[in-house]
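pls design
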């Protein structure tokens, strides 16, 4: 029973965190609007971030990257698949490395936004 209650609360607080991020309200204003305790908000934010961090443990793989000058004009020669959090990117042959770099930065930004 406790596991079900915790899962329900995690799900509920994930929605609150996402709604707050989408609303552009301060935490204090958001909590006042919805009758939430600010300390509870930060408590659950920490719990959810820690859960997200656990899911990423062991998924980061070191990659050898050539110097930055050669990266700008280089093309990735083969298909690759990259998974980051809930996102997955499959490239076509010879994707431009600048486009790949921008897409990965967007993945990271979105994952960080929705994990809060």
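designed seq:
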């Amino acid at each position: 029973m406790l596991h079900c209650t915790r899962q329900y609360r995690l799900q509920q607080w994930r929605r609150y965190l996402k709604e707050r991020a989408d609303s552009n309200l301060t935490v204090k204003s958001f909590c006042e609007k919805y009758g939430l305790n600010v300390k509870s908000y930060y408590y659950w934010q920490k719990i959810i971030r820690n859960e997200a961090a656990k899911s990423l443990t062991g998924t980061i793989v070191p990659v050898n990257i050539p110097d930055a000058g050669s990266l700008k004009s280089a093309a990735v020669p083969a298909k690759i698949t990259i998974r980051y959090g809930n996102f997955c990117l499959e490239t076509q042959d010879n994707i431009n490395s600048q486009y790949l770099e921008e897409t990965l930065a967007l993945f990271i930004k979105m994952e960080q936004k929705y994990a809060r």
